[in-house]
From TrEMBL:
Family: Belongs to the major facilitator superfamily. Sugar transporter (TC 2.A.1.1) family.
Pfam families xrefs: Sugar_tr
Organism: Daldinia eschscholtzii
Protein name listed in UniProt: Major facilitator superfamily (MFS) profile domain-containing protein
GO molecular function list: myo-inositol:proton symporter activity
Catalytically driven reaction(s): myo-inositol(out) + H(+)(out) = myo-inositol(in) + H(+)(in)
Residue ranges of every copy of the Major facilitator superfamily (MFS) profile domain listed in the record: 44-480
Main localization of the protein described in the UniProt heading: membrane
Protein localization: Membrane
Membrane topology note: Multi-pass membrane protein
Signal peptide: none
Length: 480
C-alpha cells in the first residue's frame, strides 16, 4: 500500500482506490531521498505558481472593477446583464481553451503552454485597460479567460510531475495558495484605487497591472525545464535525467537513483502503451489522439477517475465560491457596508489563511479526509448566510443606484439590517474557510488520478468541467 502522501485524490491509508485505479502503483520502485524538496524544486514551484497568482488576481480584481467603472464604458451605468457578461465570458473562454491546452501540453510540452498563457494574460490586460465600451471589455476579459483556462490546467500538472511523491500535495497546494494570494493582492489594489484615485482611471490600472506578473513569468520560463515525465515520453531521457538530478538535489555521481526514476517512468509508459495497443487491436486503427480518448473512456479505472475528477471540479464551482469572489463588492454594497472593497478583503484574507492551513495538512491527513471534514462547515456557512439574507430588507427596484450600478441602501434599511449583515459576513467567512481547506484545493490534484498516457486529456476534461460550471454560475448569479 502506498504512503498517504502518494495516495490519489480521494484516498488515504485505509482506502483501496489507489490499487483499483493504478494496480502497478506509481514510483513504488524508487526510494526517494528523505528530507524536504530541494531548493530547485521550490524555485520551479514558485515560478510556476505565478500562473496561480494571475488566476487569483483576475478573479479578485473584477469585484472592485465592477463597482468602480461607473459610466466609463459605453457612457452608461453597467446593468446586471453587462456585469454578468463581463464576468462570465472569462469562464467561457477558459472552458474553450482548457481541453485544447491539454492536447498542446502533450505535443509541445507543459512549459510552452505556460508561455502561451502568459502572452494571453499580457494582451488581455492591455485590451481591458484600454477599453471604452462594454464589448471591448468583454473582448479583453475573454482573452484573459483563455489564458486562465490554459494556466489552470497546465500549472498543477507541471508541479505534480516535478514534485517528489511525499510532497506532491503540498507543492500543488502552493499553486492554490498563489491563487488566494492573487485574490488578496487584487482586493488590496482594488481598495486603494477605488478609494484614493480618480474612479474613471483607477479601474484601468487595476486590470492593467495584471500584465506585470505575466511578463515576469515569461522571463523566468527561460530558465525553467519541462517535466521529466514529458521528456521521457517524447524520447528525451537524457534531458529528463538532468532535470531529475536538479530536482532531487542529488550529487552528479548518484546515478543509480536517477536511473531508477527514469526507468520507472519508462516502465510506466511501456505498460500504458501496451495496454492501449491491446485495447486498439494492436494499435493499428485510429490515430494517437483518438486512442487516448478510447483509453480514457473505455478503460474502467480511467473512466472512474474521470468521473471523480469532473465531479470534484464541478462541485468546486457549483458551490458558488467564485460568484462570491466576482461580486463580493457588489454584495457588500447592497448590504450597506460603507467600504465594500475593504470588506471583500477580509473574505480574501480568510481564504488565504486557511489555504495555508490546507498546505500544512493535506499530505498529513489525506485528500479524502480533508474533504469530509470541511464540507459540513461549508453547508453550515451557506445555511447561516441564507438565514441572514432572509432578514435583510433590501430597497425596492426603483431605488437609486450608485456609480457601480448597485442599489444604495437607505439609512433605515441599513440600521434594521445591520445585525443580519454581520451574520452574513461571519457565515461567508466560515464558508470560505471551509472551502479553502478542502474543495478549493483537492480538485486541482486531479493529475494524481490518471496514468501518464491519459493524464493531460483527463485533467483537461476535468478542468473544462470546472469552467463550464463557472460560466453558468457567473452568467446567472446577478440576474437571478
Amino acid at each position: 500500500m502506498a504512503s498517504p502522501a502518494e495516495a490519489p485524490l480521494l484516498s488515504h491509508q485505509e482506502d483501496e482506490l489507489e490499487d483499483e485505479l493504478h494496480p502497478d502503483g506509481e514510483n513504488t520502485t524508487v526510494e526517494w531521498p528523505a528530507g524536504r524538496p530541494s531548493i530547485f524544486i521550490w524555485l520551479l514551484t514558485l515560478s510556476a505558481c505565478i500562473s496561480g497568482l494571475l488566476f487569483g488576481y483576475d478573479t479578485g480584481v473584477i469585484s472592485a472593477t465592477l463597482v468602480s467603472i461607473g459610466t466609463s464604458l459605453s457612457e452608461r451605468v453597467l446593468t446586471s446583464l453587462d456585469k454578468s457578461l463581463i464576468t462570465s465570458c472569462t469562464a467561457l473562454f477558459a472552458l474553450v481553451l482548457s481541453p485544447i491546452s491539454s492536447v498542446l501540453a502533450d505535443y509541445f510540452g507543459r512549459k510552452p503552454v505556460i508561455l502561451l498563457s502568459d502572452l494571453l494574460f499580457v494582451f488581455g490586460a492591455v485590451v481591458q485597460a484600454m477599453s471604452t465600451t462594454v464589448s471591448g471589455m468583454v473582448f479583453g476579459r475573454s482573452i484573459v479567460g483563455a489564458a486562465v483556462g490554459a494556466a489552470s490546467f497546465v500549472t498543477p500538472l507541471y508541479i505534480a510531475e516535478l514534485a517528489p511523491p511525499a510532497y506532491r500535495g503540498m507543492l500543488v497546494t502552493m499553486n492554490v495558495l498563489s491563487i488566494t494570494a492573487g485574490q488578496v493582492v487584487a482586493y488590496v489594489i482594488g481598495w486603494i484605487f477605488s478609494e484614493y484615485s480618480d474612479p474613471s482611471t483607477g479601474w484601468r490600472w487595476m486590470v492593467g497591472l495584471g500584465a506585470l506578473p505575466a511578463a515576469l513569468q515569461c522571463l523566468l520560463l527561460l530558465f525553467m525545464p519541462d517535466t521529466p515525465r514529458w521528456l521521457v515520453k517524447v524520447g528525451k531521457s537524457a534531458d529528463a535525467r538532468l532535470v531529475i538530478e536538479k530536482t532531487l538535489g542529488c550529487d552528479p555521481s548518484s546515478r543509480r537513483l536517477i536511473d531508477s526514476v527514469v526507468k520507472d517512468i519508462e516502465m510506466e509508459l511501456r505498460e500504458e502503451q501496451g495496454n492501449m495497443a491491446l485495447a486498439n487491436n494492436g494499435g493499428k486503427n485510429g490515430n494517437t489522439w483518438l486512442k487516448g480518448w478510447n483509453e480514457l473512456l473505455n478503460v474502467p479505472k480511467n473512466r472512474r477517475a474521470l468521473v471523480i475528477a469532473c465531479l470534484l471540479q464541478g462541485l468546486q464551482q457549483l458551490c458558488g465560491f467564485n460568484s462570491l469572489m466576482y461580486f463580493s463588492a457588489t454584495i457588500f454594497t447592497m448590504l450597506g457596508f460603507s467600504v465594500p472593497t475593504l470588506t471583500s478583503l477580509t473574505v480574501a484574507a480568510t481564504n488565504f489563511v486557511f489555504t495555508v492551513f490546507a498546505l500544512l495538512l493535506i499530505d498529513r491527513i489525506g485528500r479524502r479526509r480533508i474533504l469530509l471534514y470541511s464540507l459540513p462547515f461549508m453547508v453550515i456557512g451557506l445555511l447561516l448566510s441564507a438565514f441572514g439574507f432572509s432578514l435583510i430588507k433590501l430597497p425596492p427596484d426603483d431605488t437609486t443606484t450608485d456609480g457601480g450600478g448597485a442599489p444604495v441602501v437607505t439609512d433605515a434599511a441599513s440600521i434594521s439590517s445591520r445585525g443580519a449583515a454581520v451574520i452574513i459576513l461571519v457565515s461567508i467567512m466560515m464558508y470560505v474557510a471551509a472551502y479553502a481547506l478542502g474543495l478549493g484545493n483537492v480538485p486541482w490534484m486531479q493529475s494524481e488520478l490518471f496514468p501518464l498516457n491519459v493524464r493531460s486529456l483527463g485533467s483537461g476534461l476535468a478542468t473544462s468541467t470546472n469552467w463550464l460550471a463557472n460560466f453558468i454560475v457567473g452568467l446567472t448569479f446577478l440576474p437571478l
